[in-house]
Structures
1.
Amino acid sequence: MANLKEVRLRIASVKSTQQITKAMKMVSAAKFRRATDAIVQMRPYANKLKDMLANLSESVADMDNVFTQERELNNVLLVVITSNRGLAGAFNNNVIKATNALIAEKYAEHQKQGKLHIVAVGKKSQDFYTRNKFQVIGNNNEVFNKLNFTNASAIVEAIMDGFAAGKFDHVEMIYNQFKNAAVQILTQEQLLPLPKAVQDAKASKVDYLFEPSKEEIVEELIPKSIRLQFYKALLDSHAAEHGARMTAMDKATDNAGELLRSLTLQYNQARQAAITNEILEIVSGANALAEA
Amino acid sequence: MILDILTPDKKVFSGEVISVTVPGKAGSFQIMENHAAIISTLDNGLVEIRLTDKSQELFNIKGGVVEVLKNKVVVLADGVVEE
């Protein structure tokens, strides 16, 4: 019976697929833990920086920093953060879809006039936007191999330099924010100019000495907070990626199990049918002999 | 006096200290018990810590800010050069 063999082969292949998805789930789980750790490690720094900026907020408000300047919207830069690898459910697709929707809705004109630029972080968005002939600047796929503040800063500094030099007037990031292993929140965030909302925060009533001067400190803290915002987005996306892959692979493993069950049933039925058939043949053969 | 040295990647140091010398933009300065509240930017350079057991510890930081408030010192460094 050919059917029997076919089913047996399919069972074997589903089993090996299941093994792969199971292994990928385990790997992602380990990487996920490390990625969330990195977020936790960054938090004290981020909180303290926010406090300090809050203490300086009056001077931030009337500061004319390059990075807080609202300019006429000429050139737009979108930072699209995805992962290097697929098999993470809708993780990358969501980001790309949201970016395309954003372009269609707000920046269609800029796109037509060639005033829309894209910085892709992660191979998936890099590939997509290169393939579709967008103006993609640079290649930042290696950052996820060793994700730390120094590597992330290199990318965001290039963006900040471009902004300061007037190459872009508006920078937005689109990425998956990490909530928990199963949930990613698609986030769209303005990176530059520094949104005013971030600048309004309540100050404590401590009389600090400022060295060298309030203005110079603010001058230094603003780029720091932009770098940190970008780094946070990367960390979030990284953790979200592994979370998404973990859930996707968990589902895949479950589905493979289900498939295996139904295939095994099919296999057993086919085998039983073959046996019944054989018995029938033998019995009818014997009967034919007895009659003769 | 409690000192925390933080970078975006990790907490580098946290603990009780006697004094700490930081590489301020306007010149290196030492912070001791009951220092006035201050926020200062830092250059690349060495942070020298004197621990409660009189031993010394050094960190080579890559720029940052220091905040002193009520005997709590927080150094936010962009990074720490590993020895």
Note: The mean pLDDT of chain B is 91.
2.
Amino acid sequence: MSAPITIRPDETFTLNVGPQHPATHGVLRVKMEMDGEYIVNAETVIGYIHRMHEKMGELKTYPQFLMNLSRMDYLGALGYSHGHVLLIEKAAGIEVPERAEYIRAITVELNRIASHLFWFGAFVMDLGGFSPLMYALQDREYILDMLEAITGSRLTYSYYRFGGLYNDVDDDFIDAARRFIPRMRASLKKYHRLVTGNIIFMKRLEGIAPLTPEIIRKYGATSAVARGSGINFDVRKNEPYSVYPEFDFDVPVYHECDSLARYMVRMAEMEQSLRIIEQGLDKLPGGPIMPEKKKPIKIAPGDYYQAVETARGSFGIRLVSDGGKTPYRLKLRSPTYSNMHLFDESCRGMLIMDALAFMGSLDLVIPEIDR
Amino acid sequence: MNGVMERDYNVHGYHLDAQVSPAQLLDAVAIIDDAGFFIESITGVDWIKEDQLEVIYDFSRYDFDLCRVVIRTRVPRSKPVVPTITGMYAGANWHERETHDFFGIKFEGHPNLIPLLLPEDADFHPLLKDFKA
């Protein structure tokens, strides 16, 4: 627990965490002013892998930009592609066949589980437990194999098209997905036995890094970061899109506001994603996966916005069109950017090892922050 | 033209579109803050033909009273200065720094308006329409 400390500015020193540091899981640097083991002040430095996706958005035509969205978040790429295609379809008035939308929801949820599994493994590893990562990666491998078979890639999927999909799913995919659900449910039980409740694990998380709902709001944090602080916010429910209204699922919310609550939310979310996948497979309609007639993309001048719930929170994409072949302006609102931003203010007075556990509970993907 | 307009959510993806002058900005954001909105993002658009830069603020709600609000303000390209809203929304800090990086818009009163995503010695603004690499 963080004890109150008296700050003696003449006795502090500066500690650089990163830009290359295993705990940051990417190229992120935090300049920490330390009083012994306690953080007096922290300044997060980002931008080391900034690629200016938004400029590329202005230079490339609408279809050419499709693959950029899968290169922001390498753990949960499909969620970002989903937001992009939904936005363009809304703005250009493109109808999507029902089957395509169901397959999108199934694959996005599979991707969400894969992303949460990687987070789970890496998070526990940050806290000193190495073996859960191996189990998590094994389960994640099943998903990557399934997605590879239908999308052609293992991480940087470019699977969705304006109006539908690049490729239909086959019986092998549906069988594999059906087999995966009970296996994953058993695994989640195993993870809870293996990790949750472990005394060392609990001591590192319980009551650590409390985030008040007010600080969440002032920074615009979303995902498990908000839901672990008692905020019942999930774009899939609050601002329904795609076929999510057709599914019966819950939004896990924990009110403890600490690192443990954020962990519990993500663990519970995997169960809910399995429910969505199960219902999606049951309800999957037949029919085409692309509109019959392909129309050129024409977007009337104006301002369009679309938000989706990715594995990392509320991803927003804004298009300002002047009626041309390329966007006049394309803005990508990244969820981890807002989630990470509150770190500097929240980690003051914390022990450094608590702050690193806190950072892990934010589920950061650095290229997604830097864009 | 300043004023508040209602937008068709099904087409545009947001509900209210408030165009304000830079002098009215803080008052407009204060209303949003009091009403319990969270900050989504801040960004800019370069309207070079009209010789103006636009700053766009996105706000939304955590409850089920769905309402997306967009506040926009325009400044001349020759003097792109707007007041900072970091006093109300601490999370505006990075968004304003990023908008300064990309458009050169100055946020008056910002505590630390240095490059965020661009290199620390960057003296260019890549999203300006007359930017040449």
Note: Chain A has a mean pLDDT of 90.
